[in-house]
Design brief:
alpha+beta; Aminopeptidase
Length: 212
Amino acid sequence: MLPSIHKISLDQDTRGEPLCSPKPYAPKLGRTQRFTPTILGLSGSQAGEAVKILPGAPQLCYGIFAPSGRKKRKPMVEYKTGTACIDWAQLTRLYAEVGLVAGLGKEKDTDRIRSAFEASGRVITAWMDGNLVGAGRMITDGVSYGLIVDVGVWPSFQKQGLGKGIMKHLLEDSRHLSLQLWPTKGNIPFYEKLGFAALGPDHPVMIIKRSQ
């Protein structure tokens, strides 16, 4: 298979380093990669792809795009605490997809979702490449009890450890509280691994008793 031909435009990154941003010339690949070229030869690679830059106009150069065979970098997950960082439109889309927030997610009621989160004792959100992909919160008096609710992850990012990460951040500095939650269907084993136990075989509530 012949390599794809790309037209490459040069710009600057935040450090003033030249960057190449390939735009499909033929055929269209459906995505854009960015590469950091070296000064000699203007060739470089990033995120598992390789480019060789050929001579061109001052603002443009032309390159041959070919897969390097290296594994692509897995996006990093960033967990944030509090509500100041939240993009409320993204949070509403998350809960419109997965439900929760007492039905407000499916109703896409951004104002009431925001009010609920801002009234919570602890809020954790998960981010990948600037996108909000998961969230959860705790309602608590800060002294004796805490109720964990609305732990949800965007479906395409589930089964990747994000829910566990959100829960671990929610549980930080909370062992002095008696914690409760209502697990969704099929998630009891997940919460058991985090230390929760059901109140009884037919009881919907799971708890962690506070440390003495």
